[in-house]
Every structure is written in C-alpha cells, then in structure tokens.
C-alpha cells in the first residue's frame, strides 16, 4: 500500500469514528506543516501556533478531502491559507538578515548543543535564510519540492501551472538559491564544500 492509499485509509477510518487515528496524520505531516509555517512566521512560537491551527482546520474539514490529490497537497493548501490569514491578523514584522539581533538570537538558540548538531542546524538555518531571500514563487517551489517532497505534478496542481513549467522554474529557483547562498553566505558555503 503506497503513502497516498495509506493516508486515504486513515482518513476513511477517522471519518467512520476512529478519531484517534488522526494523530497518525499529524505525526506524519507535522514537520512538513511546521516547515511551511516557519517560512511565514517570524518566530518558532508563531510557527507552532500556525501548525496547530492547520491541523485543527484539517480535522474539522476532513470530510471535504476528496482524494483527487495526495493528502499532503490538500494539507499544503490549508497551511498556506492559514499562514496568510495569520499574517494578516498579526501584521508581523519581517526581520532583515542585516539586523544583528537576529544572528545573536540564533547564536543563543544554538548554545548547549553538541558541535555537530550546531553545525547541522547552522547549515539548515543558512539554507532557510537563503530561501527567504528568494522571490515568493521560487521559495514556494523549493520548499514544496525539497521539504514537502511534492512531485512536479503535485506542485503544478498547487501552483496552477504545468509540471514541465514547474521543472523549469525549479531549475531556475535552485540556481538563484545557489547564487543567494554564494552571495550572502560565501564563507559558510566554502567551509561546507571544503
């Protein structure tokens, strides 16, 4: 049984009354939802709040899932809409990477970790920061493909474009991401490739 079939089976059972099975979907997709929410939110707490709202909305509207696409595609739509609504309500300020306190905060959050965990988190943070420097479309494609593990067809469905166009846009977005990383994180990129 593939992932989509397994998700559909869980959804069917939840709708038939086995409500506790929804926790399996939450566990399976929590990182996916949190990653997307983190792109919109300015801090971890807001991203966690958004993620929680997403799963509440998904649970309440589970009967609306038709199965035309994968559950993760449907969940992405809810996540994206919830993030936009959250930002409208909060009117969150976007922090510039040029602000020193952003880096100080990141340094404080890393303290106490073993060296390899700090390095891995630093690389992940660097990539996430570089993604934030991209245009919204580029960031969305990169996030969906690499963090959301969506296929070209699924991304095309989400964005309303042809899968071949997605492939071209993904290639260009990767190139722009590489350029942003080299431009803004030249020393870090050099250390990673050495």
TrEMBL record:
Residue ranges occupied by any RNA polymerase sigma-70 region domain in the UniProt entry: 25-91
RNA polymerase sigma factor 70 region 4 type domain mapped to chain residues: 126-177
PROSITE patterns in UniProt: SIGMA70_ECF
A molecular function GO annotation: sigma factor activity
A Gene Ontology biological process term: DNA-templated transcription initiation
One Pfam family cited in the UniProt record for this chain: Sigma70_r4_2
Keywords: DNA-binding, Sigma factor, Transcription, Transcription regulation
Similarity annotation: Belongs to the sigma-70 factor family. ECF subfamily.
NCBIfam families: sigma70-ECF (TIGR02937)
Protein name: RNA polymerase sigma factor
Record organism: Pseudobacter ginsenosidimutans
